Structures are given as C-alpha cells and as structure tokens.
Amino acid sequence: MNDDKKQRKQIKLLGYIRIAGDIEALTGLHIGGIADSIDKGGIDNPVIKNPVTNEPYIPGSSLRGRMRSLLEKKTAKILHPMTRAKDIWMEIYESEKEALDSEVCRVYGNSASEKSVPSVLIVRDALMSRNDSGDYRREDYMKNGLPVTEAKMEIAVDRITAHAVPRTIERVPAGARFDFEIIYKVQTYENGKFEATSMDYGTKSDDKLRADLKNILWALEQIETHDGLGGNTSRGHGQVNICINGLEDIHFFKQETKDSKDESPEDEVKTAAEVECEKMKKSFADWCEKINEICYSQDLKKNDSQKTEEAGNS
Fold first, then answer.
1. CA count, 13 A, side-chain hemisphere, 273
2. What are the domain boundaries of the chain?
3. What gap in Å lies between CA 314 and CA 311, rounded to an integer?
4. What are the pLDDT digits (tens) for 66-113?
5. How far apart are CA 52 and CA 62, in angstroms?
C-alpha cells in the first residue's frame, strides 16, 4: 500500500497564459518552402505558402525555433548532439533532473532524457492578418489576384574571376502583417505539487512560471530588436516589429472576489487578467511587472481544499 502511494503520479492542469499579437515585416521576409518546379529564370527559393489559398504564413515551428535558439544562447549551457550523426546540436539532457533544471527544456521540452520532459509551450502558425489597418491590404491583394510576395535578385560574385552567379529569392514584402498566438500551459510536474517558490527540480512553482514567461517575452523582444525571423537575416531580410495586443491569465477555478461569493459555482473558468500594451520593446519592463502579479500556487490549494470538503460532505 505504501509502495503504491510512493509510485502515485499526478499532473494537474491549472490554466493557461495566452500571449497574442501581430508580427509586421519591416523588410522582406523569407521562410523557405518547396518549389513545385523550377523554370528557367524562375524562383530558386520560394517562401512557404498555404497550398489551398496560396497565402504565405509564418510556421509556428520557425518562430518557436528562433525563440529557443536565442534562449539557449542566453543561458549559454553546454550543447549536446540531438542525433546519432551529431549534425544537430542543442541544449538537451539525458537526465530528467538536468532537463527540469534547464530554463530552456522545462518550457520547450526535452526528448533525449530517459523520461521525456514534454513542452508546455504552444506556438501556433501565424497567418496573414485579415484586419490590417496599414498600407498592405490582404483582401485587396487576394481579391484582385495580385501577388502577395516579391522576387529579390541576389548575385554571388567569384572573387577571382568576377563571374556572377545570380539567384532569385522569394520574400513576403515589407508591410505584411501576421497574427500570432502563444499558449503557455500552467501545469504541475508528475508529483502534482505547485508551490509559491521551490528549489526542488521536480516541483513547479510560481517563481519558475514567472521566469519562463519573462524568457518568452525576452526572446520575442530580441527577435524584434536585435535579430529577425526567417533566413538571410544577415543580408537584410526578416526585420520585424512584434506588437503584443494582449495577455490573458486563465485559471481553472472560481476566483474569490468581493462580488463572487453569491455567484453560481458552475462557471469554473475565469480570465484573471487581460491587459493591452503597445510596441514590445517600449514595454518589456511593464510586462515583467505584470508577470510578477501572476500566482497559481494558491489555486491548487483552493482546489485541493474544495475537493476535500466535497469528499467529506459526500
């Protein structure tokens, strides 16, 4: 009986943090796709597009990968090979303890350990904005059959013979906007605990959650301010402006407020905080202050005490 209790595992989902906004291309953006065919004088490097609508989009994997890569450089931990061929190196660990101690792996996941650490971050594909108030109008381009991409000619010159080798790169033009959404799942590890603060690698806590969210916003800020999206950023491609339109802090429990004592307990999902913000690089400190107010450890205690009372009454 005691052995069963020791082996008991329980992961509790407490809620979600939702970050939403739009990405504006300040220079041509290239995220590579696959060419159906290459005609003479045609596009050598096309951008990825929706096969049904032919609209370009930013894959969630591209945004997520850039965010993880920047965070790995910030933490500067030792990298390990992801494949047996040792052709891809990243911050991954064979030990579950090391993975859960990692600021990178506890958010983006770690599949190399004996016990895989699942990712708690969902980055959705960023589709072209349908409500663009700027010069670029998605509806006008698509309705009139106009191209939503541009072809940029680049030339590589042999330093000895001066022979020029041209290549054509397809880009999404400056001014295009994409709606993005990032979801952070607030959940415990397998011990089912969520504390206000904890030094135990196997226990989730509010301080770890806040650190994770700050790292997510830091990565977005770096993409906007010092880095970029897509390929060829060293040659001027992929400069973007990231605007966060809102942050939702969603709890899976009935929050205690002055006006909620007489309300029906049927509604268990409540948005605790929703804020508006201007351009990210002007407000990163403000976002961090907002994140410091987020607390989930009390939620778990309220849920557990409520379940105990219900079990006692039954």
1. 18
2. 2-253+269-313
3. 5
4. 999 999 999 988 888 887 777 888 888 888 888 888 999 999 998 876
5. 20
